[in-house]
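REVIEWER CHECKLIST
Item 1: Sequence provided? yes
Item 2: Single chain? yes
Item 3: Sequence as submitted:
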Amino acid sequence: MKQLLLENCIDMDTVLFDLDDSPYTIKMFLALLKNQGATKNVKKKMTQYFGKKFKTEDREKVITYIRGLAHGILGTSEDAVKELEEQTGVMLTHN
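Item 4: Structure as written out by the authors:
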């Protein structure tokens, strides 16, 4: 998963959101996924949505997707999950 993101120029230190007044980064999200045993499933979904080589214009969507997943796993925001579902629906209908 980390390799997929790095190959697509997604920085591991990208801040997804603030959690308890601290930046929550992609690196922290990957550790969470590993801890949950969900890395393989998330990587599979991401490659279904975005392919193995992300388009430049999709990079922001990828970060939004990861942000939504992190909120969902952490249970930090119902609105973030709704936003993720809406954006994922839009992405799937526009591809």
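Item 5: Key structural point noted by reviewer: The two ends are 23 Å apart (CA to CA).
Item 6: Recommendation: ____
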